[in-house]
Protein 1
Amino acid sequence: MINVRSIPYMQIRGGSSKGLYFLASDLPLDADERDQILLSAMGRDVRQIDGLGGADPLTSKVAIVGPSSRPNADVDFLFVQVVVGENRVDTTPNCGNILAGVGAFALEAGLLTALPTCTAITVNMLNSDKLCELIVQTPDEKVTYEGDTRIDGVPGTSAPVVCNYLELAGSVCGALFPSNNFTDTVLGTQVTCIDNGMPLVLMRASDFGLSGRESPAELNANDELIQRLEALRLTLGPIMNLGDVKAKSVPKMCLISAPTHGGLINTRTFIPHVCHAAVGVLGAVSVATACLFKDTVASAIVDVPEGDLVSLRVEHPCGEFSVQLHLDRSQNSLLVRKAGVVRTARLLSRGTLYI
């Protein structure tokens, strides 16, 4: 007789991704046992036909949420990327899109109590041991998903979720510029390695014979490009304090070029081998941060505004992503104190998952 296990879940669209959200108490404490359940939940093959995944990295994501172990946070959040078609998971990176749904999930699941008008929730991001403040709209002390906020990569409008990331520098790699340089030359290519919430490698599209305006489908079909990016990624893993990254989804690889629609910079991001239809939240934060510093591969492309509070628009294949950076320019140095972004989220379903 087959033993069937049932687990409560919610499926939430967070930003331009969607994933399964679980209470930590509903999953095993043992990481290996937990990961096997998540693989079965999403689907182990490339089509994810026997699971709830959508056969795409953006829809093969998991959030595990529970009461926080930190006195200055409300909930703990572990992000899990289920790697499509490879029957494995990766907990190395964070995901700002899935994070955008954590506040709604915590309230819907009864972990926290909603306040009138809006509710501020401080999230301890276990993947990076950093904090993010989420502002969730809660009129009448209930989560609302209705509103006029539009984000590129998502049809329609919804209620805004304000995400204020606190001191993200070196979240995964241990330093904002983990190679200790603004620019490195690796395998004959100039790159900037940065981690302001997401380990990222920036490269000029022109150095690959590209305009930077190619569609994701065109780039994904360029086998020579994919092979070159992977060779760079594997070489840079140890340099970025990430070790052997063959089985990891970081660092993300990002081709940059001059903006085409009035933004700060244009991007094409790979996660890590497939070109993103848009750009990740923390990926956009890391790109925008790199643009602020002289001598990065982005510095000759961009025109950054002055001031201690700058709003920067990062262009991507289906629109743009706005990032607000709070800066400290004192003592002849530049520090990013806080990064603010606006996302939306929507509860799609809730029920019982059968493993």
Protein 2
Amino acid sequence: MTANTFLAALANIYPPDRLLRRPAQLLPYESDALTAFRARPLAVVLPERAEEVIETVRLCAREGVPFVARGSGTSLSGGSLPVEGGVVIAMNRMNRILRLDPQERVAVVEPGVVNLDVSKAAAPYGLYYAPDPSSQPICTIGGNVAFNSGGAHCLKYGMTSNHVLGLKAVLADGEVIEIGGESLEHVGPDLVGLFVGHEGLFGVVLEITLRLLPKVEAYRTVLAAYRSLEEAGHAVGLVVASGLLPGAMEIMDRLAIEAAEAAVQAGYPQDAAALLIVELEGEEPQVEAEFEQLLEVIRSSGAYEVRVAQTDEERARIWKGRKGAFSAVGRLSPDYVVQDGVVPRAKLGEALAEIERLSNAYGLRVANVFHAGDGNLHPLILYDGREPGALEKAEELAGEILEMCIRLGGSITGEHGVGMEKRRFLPAMFSPEDVETMRRLRRAMDPHELANRGKMFP
């Protein structure tokens, strides 16, 4: 089948306004949030019903045409980059919350539902959806499932995989499957756990059954300022060693503070080398008891200034600065690379010192923003893409940071996925047998590697 014949077949599924094929229409889909990678698809389709997605995948399977499912395009690893000559299935119009059951505490949603909208819909029933990535106001649940997204509060509540109970999906060969259900207790292998984090390599998710939690009764949010990044990293270890389990622990360094303050005026101390945000949450008596213990630990950790949010507005402002830090760094540099790696908490200080050494060696500024509670680093490497070789230099520095994470016993990704960016590091972290096992799993679901072809594997 020629490209024109294939497009004609797509036109039998989609009306003209939902089948994009002109260069100007395709341009916004040529990359995701990792703009260093670009590719032009043959077409972009905008399904509104699950049946349209199934028909599209089955057409691609018959004709051997690769496809990529895409939500809001917030992937920072090139995970939703199009395949040249393939089809992008843009899921944003499949954005309905199909059912919300406050008694069972579940929500059944389509993949194009925005993360934060689930909590907004559940709020009247005193419930919310816990995973909260920084892109929460725009990222979609389908993308969260593909990359097993986390967020600031994953320390206490876990990742997306801990909150997905069931899935309906169309595999790359066109077979429609339903796995899991609405119960927390499953019999047999954890197929939902296998599917969450598949990076689009198995097929396209059509419906997701999410676990909802009761809204938190009380919060205590503490902002501590330090004279050095190492001191802030050491404080994380002290908090964990004390036996406390905060809802979130986040660190921002001087550059990230500067950017966030310029963008949202969060009121952060401007002379701090690092900020530690610790948030306790739960039932009020427990939170108040833990709060006194937390203050003792923070004051003994070397913090020169400690602030406690007294109102919901003050808490929101603290988090607005942290969650807006990635985009705010654009005020400091025309371009930057966002890296994502993990180190054991005990190695945080060593990792941060090494990042500072690498920053000086490469002559590139690095802003550090990370989920300190689980050692998930997000260094942002600043560069000017107008300078010849600047991107390559930044990517080389990013690669050294990933190699450091592996060396310290960590991981090449915490929540951004492998995608395009980290494919070459997969064999450095896993044995050849492990990588081949992953490939066999992928081919069992997608023998012709049509779904998100070219991602993850080197």
Protein 3
Amino acid sequence: MRILLVLLLIPNLAHADLRLVAAPAMNVECDDLELGPLTQALDAARAVLQKRSETLTFSGRSVSSSEYASRTLKTVADLARAGDRGKLCGALGAWFVWYQIANPILMTAYHTPSVRGSLSADETYRYPLYRRPKDGHAHDASAQILAGSLAGKNLELVWLADAYDALALQVEGAGNITLPDGSLLAIGADGHNGQTYQNVSKLLAADGEMPTGKAPAANLPGNPKARKYFSEHPAELNVYWAKNPHFVFFRRTAKAGSGKFGALTPGRSIAVDPARVPFGAVMWISAQKPTVDAGRITGYVPYTRLVLAQDTGAGIKGPGRIDVYYGEDDYAQLASAATSVQGVAYVLLLK
């Protein structure tokens, strides 16, 4: 999981953690997903990068963002569009230079959650998500906001039925809000207060308060064990939340789960540290994903696939972290909470 941040291509940034390596052995199973959504995601990324004037640096080799779009991304998109998986997999090994980032990598996952909410407050809907303030309160820490520093300023975007949902959406950065009449309100992050991020679940665990044993079924956003603890100790939620100064603001969006490259693509969009991996880069990853049956995680299976670096987050720092976007369906909800695996990742550049 991650906190959604504003995506910016960083000019002339040397991604020193990328290490030139030989391409791993490729076969016709080099990608486990349908190729159509990959083509669409590549086309959207190309359209953005071609308008940029930044420089992407790959272990000493620099290319402009527009060149990367017109050569590397276009070549991969053309291969995917042709629909010949065997040719695509063969070309990956033969046509591209491979740069490995830290090995191994901790790969987690995130999704677009759905929670209950209302455009007006009442006894059921009592927990607000806030619009970005335009005054000095834009930098208020979580403790100040939870104590009421934004109250009475008409900044409430929507009111939620569950206090932990409000905290969970701080982490996910986007969501679909089911309103009382059954309609959906899509929301996304509108930046944050600039304060340091602390993981509330880790703070809870560090105090020895995290419930032990098997995690409850993850049919709601956030850490299932932390949700269980705070449901049993509601007064503690704001106590721990206040220990995380970082606070995210929200806005209405046309579709939840969107970024600067357009809509995030389930299984294809990943969050990276832009100081380590160039935004817009096409990558190849290998890891494990959960299997689900009857609403429960039943195990893990290996997978490999092409992905795009399209997102980032306060908890995704350093070369050894990647967050995979799973989407917004039931599988995404369950699997994102259960994904914390080791994997490998490479950035690709056309020879």
